Amino acid sequence: xxxxxxxxxxxxxxxxxxxxxxxxxxxxxxxxxxxxxxxxxxxxxxxxxxxxxxxxxxxxxxxxxxxxxxxxxxxxxxxxxxxxxxxxxxxxxxxxxxxxxxxxxxxxxxxxxxxxxxxxxxxxxxxxxxxxxxxxxxxxxxxxxxxxxxxxxxxxxxxxxxxxxxxxxxxxxxxxxxxxxxxxxxxxxxxxxxxxxxxxxxxxxxxxxxxxxxxxxxxxxxxxxxxxxxxxxxxxxxxxxxxxxxxxxxxxxxxxxxxxxxxxxxxxxxxxxxxxxxxxxxxxxxxxxxxxxxxxxxxxxxxxxxxxxxxxxxxxxxxxxxxxxxxxxxxxxxxxxxxxxxxxxxxxxxxxxxxxxxxxxxxxxxxxxxxxxxxxxxxxxxxxxxxxxxxxxxxxxxxxxxxxxxxxxxxxxxxxxxxxxxxxxxxxxxxxxxxxxxxxxxxxxxxxxxxxxxxxxxxxxxxxxxxxxxxxxxxxxxxxxxxxxxxxxxxxxxxxxxxxxxxxxxxxxxxxxxxxxxxxxxxxxxxxxxxxxxxxxxxxxxxxxxxxxxxxxxxxxxxxxxxxxxxxxxxxxxxxxxxxxxxxxxxxxxxxxxxxxxxxxxxxxxxxxxxxxxxxxxxxxxxxxxxxxxxxxxxxxxxxxxxxxxxxxxxxxxxxxxxxxxxxxxxxxxxxxxx
Length: 675
Prior knowledge:
By secondary structure, the chain is α+β, with helices and mostly antiparallel strands. It contains 21 helices and 31 strands. The strands form six sheets. The chain has a seven-stranded mixed sheet. Strands 11-12-15-13-14-21 form a six-stranded antiparallel sheet, with helices on one face. A hairpin with a 5-residue loop joins β16 (409-415) and β17. α4 packs antiparallel against α5. The longest helix has 18 residues, at 235-252. The relative contact order is 0.08. Residues 211-218 have low confidence and may be disordered.
């Protein structure tokens, strides 16, 4: 029914919760009680359901959800395929027009926000606070429609999958809402969310309101009944917050968590939900540690800032470790600890029996915020870092600890369609391995075990492990040397690659090796087995034929930096990742590619920073590169042709018309261009 696909936000409470969601309904009830709520329009679950049913989106969702978790390391890829479908499928024009008309009315008053209102949100047991996405302020209908797609796609993120323990919501709703420029903003609790003591308290901050809800901002917590709160807040704001707390509890009949904005002397309410309590993660009662194989026990433990690591890539690593254990394939170990300073000696002694390497990495928060230390100094480092991640009970802290393998070599391997294993090897730790910036030594191992050295690369740097903050590998200049590997090591890499590919169907294995033995670090799944390269060293990166106009990208330094900063990789790397697409370095490169139809990008190597361009380019030509880097995987998954041509920068000029195929690059028309 058309009349319940897009409805005024203030009328959302008149529809069933599965249609508009509890978030939109709460705002409608507050508006009905006379409180200030920014105007908006609810795009209901029926609208999103019709988009899914009238396009290929619905079938993709069903197929991928059915297969979700069938392969331990395939969860991330299944979710990624759903997100791609949501952000790249054209929506039915009549449904787009409905949202466009609503957006244009709101945009006539100023910028708008797109906010989720998933029917399962804002419950007393599971709030889903911060799990789904909101975007804005947005100034055009095109921005609104793109944001709607990305926010819908966030329903199928690793974060949502982990929070819901694998039971992803099947319905999605959202609303467009007028953006209110904040003078102050915060979250108001009608009672203390930890102690449940009566009396409203609020977190208050100044600046961007999204910083408060995302946890990035620096907020001050105030008890509004405390007279000193009047020294921090304007009296009008303090009185308005107290009134909001009283009216909200009277209206809903229970304690509330309210998001608010103070603008031009007026209090606006942006969200009202019950204070989550029933199934929230609990504060620890005693120090403990969990090996990376015990994922289930960690769902209900307060891990503080470490939870983000657990809910993202680490969950894949845990499943991978289980798979490797079943196949007798070695991999490095990890553990979580929740501890107090007085517990560090005991925990370090216990962990020394679990962790086996000389050095370990300790993280108290997100990737790159930790330290590297000798395992023998673990107790001291845990004690010194205790204040980095205090939990709900500040006596406790959480940390994530992982082994660091002092490897001589690292690289990638895969089983090709003819049964051959291809191995790309680099000196361990060198910058540029994942980005595609280095040419590897390449080995192939036939099904019968015969080794062929396709290409032995020369390097002039090695890395060694140094304890300290951040990344642990430190490169050192050396005289040039040839990087060969022993037959025993090559055969061991081939063995573990075959074992994983036989189990998973197809995979690209990332490994460490030293002393003739290999160890798995990670696995990425592709759409099928790779064809054998057309020339030694993997000159064919991705098959197919494409014609277009040359665009040279001679300097990849900024794109490399963006890729490292944003952790651009195979998963969540393109147009469905708002953080990536908001980066100025990425958007400038995307804009350059989109100025002309059918662009053939010419670049020095397959940098991970080029991954966001894959959806917009017809093909790629690189001066050097390898078959198994992240960019190569994405090119093959998208079906975008790419080859290596050593003299591409000298022979191919901007504006030339060329054809890229497995046979090479053919100039169709150069328009008398001079390089």
